[in-house]
């Protein structure tokens, strides 16, 4: 009979423990791999969600779940019109690579994105009739901002160090300030309108490529654009004062309409590439634009009742369209004007304005290239007749009470009138006289003159010949 030894007892125990450890290790490894697989699968699912082209959020719980999975969203985030809750909170979302849109909801009162620093596309808040505040205080990168039809919106928080944007539209809000865009230097489009409490607008913007429109905000809005140098269309309306002291180029049209300003300072403006319109500025009595040389479109100066002396274009030599002055002005001067490519009309209620003094130089230098040239005033006195040499048609400027009228124009070197028709220059409306008829009379006169001259030469030549014999 064999006795049990230590080896006989311990060895099997050691073998059993090793086998048990092996099995346990494999089981643990399997569970770890299974957990890793689940985690990887979950991560993959989250990545797919974060890369969706668009997320349409209907309730706050959906937004909370999205924020847990995605700190960065690669598509658009849209709060739909079905959203019925008062608060929109983006929680931990830091970046939206597409657009962020909240629109067409009457229930949303507040929008909060405490960690959001980037919107790759548009930030749109539209048709939110209950919205009071929007807090995106860390937002420092965004291409476009459009806040439209937000009648109760009073508070907006955005990082004010943004320097460049494509588009800024702020319309129909209760904002009192737009300081959050105070450091913008460049944009393609800026439109600020119909914000009834917005009494001061101050921007450091230097260049607007497409259009800059500011109008219908608080009464007598103070608009400060001291750094603006170049813009496309520029339209300012319903302002009490504004600063455009460094503006040099308007690359489209300029509209200064229905403002209560007393002075318009455009002293550094050099060129307007479209039409210039200064209309219905009832208190305006002074304009400074001494460096402006080109207006490539038309020029309209209408119903500025306090503007009596129209001498604010001393350097302009080219106007590419028609000119229309209408009001109560006493004097107009264009000392360096060389050409008006359209027609010209000057209508004033003044009893001091003399159409002859203005238009004589126009006729003599052939400044007007368009079809019509008219002038009307209430000056009283005797008829004034101006005769020119034979290469020009005589014209008459009539005062109130006169009953006669003639037309005026300047013939080109070949004897043809530059204009198809010439309108009388008169203080009362006159009929247009056809330039063709005037031309026919001149041609007939020239033909008869040539015939008489030829006869004199033929008789004089034989006489001189016989005298030399």
UniProtKB/TrEMBL annotation:
Membrane-spanning residues: 444-466
Keyword vocabulary terms for this entry: Cell membrane, Glycoprotein, GPI-anchor, Lipoprotein, Membrane, Signal, Transmembrane, Transmembrane helix
Annotated spans, Disordered: 396-438
Membrane-related topology note: Lipid-anchor; GPI-anchor
GO biological process: ascospore wall assembly
Biased composition (Low complexity): 397-413
Name of the featured protein: Similar to Saccharomyces cerevisiae YDR522C SPS2 Protein expressed during sporulation, redundant with Sps22p for organization of the beta-glucan layer of the spore wall
Entry keyword Cytoplasm: no
Subcellular location, record wording: Cell membrane
């Amino acid at each position: 009979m064999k006795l049990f030894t230590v080896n006989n007892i311990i060895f099997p125990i050691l073998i059993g423990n090793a086998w048990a450890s092996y099995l346990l290790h494999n089981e643990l490894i399997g569970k770890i791999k299974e957990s890793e697989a689940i985690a990887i699968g979950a991560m993959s699912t989250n990545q797919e969600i974060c890369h969706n082209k668009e997320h349409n959020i209907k309730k706050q719980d959906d937004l909370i779940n999205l924020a847990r999975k995605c700190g960065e969203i690669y598509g658009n985030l849209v709060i739909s019109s079905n959203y019925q809750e008062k608060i929109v909170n983006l929680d931990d979302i830091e970046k939206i690579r597409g657009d962020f849109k909240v629109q067409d909801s009457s229930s949303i009162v507040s929008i909060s994105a405490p960690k959001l620093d980037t919107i790759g596309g548009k930030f749109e808040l539209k048709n939110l009739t209950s919205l009071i505040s929007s807090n995106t205080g860390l937002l420092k990168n965004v291409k476009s901002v459009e806040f439209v039809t937000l009648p109760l919106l009073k508070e907006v928080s955005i990082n004010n160090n943004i320097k460049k944007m494509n588009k800024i539209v702020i319309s129909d809000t209760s904002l009192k300030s737009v300081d959050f865009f105070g450091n913008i230097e460049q944009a393609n489009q800026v439109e600020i309108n119909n914000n009834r409490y917005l009494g001061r607008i101050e921007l450091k913007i230097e260049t607007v490529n497409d259009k800059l429109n500011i109008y219908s905000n608080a009464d007598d809005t103070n608009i400060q654009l001291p750094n603006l140098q170049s813009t496309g269309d520029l339209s300012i309306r319903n302002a009490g004062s504004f600063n455009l002291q460094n503006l040099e180029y308007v690359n489209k049209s300029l509209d200064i309409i229905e403002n209560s300003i007393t002075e318009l300072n455009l002293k550094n403006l050099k060129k307007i590439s479209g039409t210039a319109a200064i209309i219905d500025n009832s208190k305006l009595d002074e304009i400074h634009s001494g460096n402006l040389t080109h207006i490539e479109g038309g020029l309209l100066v209408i119903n500025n009742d306090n503007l009596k002396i129209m001498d604010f274009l001393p350097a302009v030599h080219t106007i590419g369209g028609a000119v229309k002055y209408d009001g109560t002005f006493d004097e107009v001067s264009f000392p360096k004007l060389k050409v008006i490519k359209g027609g010209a009309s000057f209508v004033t209620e003044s009893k001091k304005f003399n159409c002859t003094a203005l238009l004589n130089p126009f006729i003599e230098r052939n400044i007007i290239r368009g079809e019509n040239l008219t002038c009307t005033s209430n000056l009283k006195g005797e008829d004034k007749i101006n005769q020119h040499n034979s290469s020009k048609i005589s014209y008459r400027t009539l005062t109130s009470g006169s009953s006669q009228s003639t037309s005026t124009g300047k013939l080109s070197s070949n004897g043809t009138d530059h204009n198809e028709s010439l309108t009388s220059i008169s203080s009362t409306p006159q009929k247009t006289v056809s330039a063709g008829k005037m031309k026919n009379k001149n041609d007939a006169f020239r033909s008869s003159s040539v015939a008489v001259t030829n006869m004199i030469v033929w008789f004089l030549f034989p006489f001189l010949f016989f005298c030399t014999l």
